[in-house]
Structure formats: C-alpha cells, structure tokens
Design goal:
- Helices cover 45% and strands 11% of the residues.
- By secondary structure, the protein is an alpha+beta fold.
- A 4-stranded mixed beta sheet has the order 2-1-3-4, with helices on both faces.
- Helix 1 crosses helix 8.
- The longest helix is centred in the N-terminal third of the chain and has 16 residues.
- The protein is globular.
- The chain starts with 10 loop residues before the first strand and ends in a 19-residue tail after the last helix.
- 35% of the residues are buried.
Amino acid sequence: MSDNSTVTGKTPADFWFDPLCPWAWMTSRWMLEVEKVRDVEVRWHVMSLAVLNENRLDELPDEYRDMLENKAWGPVRVVIAAQQKHGDDIVGPLYTALGTRFHNQGEGPTREAVEGALKDVGLPAELAEYADSDAYDTELRASHQEGIDKVGQDVGTPVIAVPGADGEQIAFFGPVVTPAPKGEDAAKLWDGTLLVASIPGFYEIKRTRTQGPVFD
C-alpha cells in the first residue's frame, strides 16, 4: 500500500508506469534526477495501457489498438512477475533496463530486449516467459487499479502521487516533459509539483505537445 512514509524518512513519490510508454519514461528519468537533488524516494508501481483501454478498443485507431493487443501486455507482465518473485526493490532497476533498451537504444518491446533487460539486472531469463502468461494478471490489475483509484480513469501513464497540503496523497497524470529535466531544473519541477498538489481543488494544467520524446 502507498502512504506518506518511507523506511528512509524521505518524502515518498509513488510512480505508476507502463514500460511501453515513452512519455512515462521521460517522467521517470526526471524522478531519478529528483532523488539526487531533493530528499525524495521514488516507489515504483506498474500500470497497464492494455488494461486502461481494454473497454474502449473499438474507439481507438487501428495502429494503437494493434499495439495494445499485441505488444502492451508482455513487458508489464514480466515486470509484475519479477516483483512477485524477487520483491519490490527490483521494479525500478528492471524498468530502467527495459526503458533503456526500448526507448534510448531503439530496440522496442521485443523478446530479445526483454531478455537483455532481465540479464542487465541479474534476473533469470526465464522470467521473459511471463510475457505470454496471465499468471500474475490479478496482481497487475491490482497495482494498476491502485494508481487509477488515486487519480481517476481519464488519464494515461505515468501517474505520480505526492503528499498534498494535509499529508494525504494527491495524484496526477504526468508531468509530461521532454527532455527529462536535470539538476536544478529537475528540482524546480518537483517543487512546483508539490506546490500545485498543496492547492485544494487544483486539477490540471495542459498545453499541446509540439515535440516528441527526447531520449538523452
């Protein structure tokens, strides 16, 4: 369960991601920078674009629907299997390994990329078999639902939950940003996220994206 305490005493930031999403990847790299410049600990959780959209597939463009049906289930199933078998602490490192291969190195969500990522973090290659298994779909859906319960259904990935003014967690979709801010810019965006979370009734800031993800 996500709450407002960590074993280290740092400010928690709960982060829900689908490994396939390049925008979640951008935001996650920002959060790793935040850990360097603020007293923050990120707690990683999976959510699923396939689960999020499973009841509206007929409304989606053919290409996106094909991606959800044929590519989206595998990586997130591998991550949840790794978590169930090897503990919460492996989720962040495995996400980094998967995202680096999928996005930065341009390998995409292939079986070879998944197996390579597992090897990168010292996990057994046979975990890749869970890409085609529903063995941990109950746990996957529970993790997904925890994030959605905090933020609402009308979102995508990533979802981030941070402490609000009264200590209760406030969740947002995003922030959507590219390239991932570093150093003091990362700190300022984090401080701004906490600031808007502290305002009762604040829900959304948005503008049209004019640039794609920059994987640096």
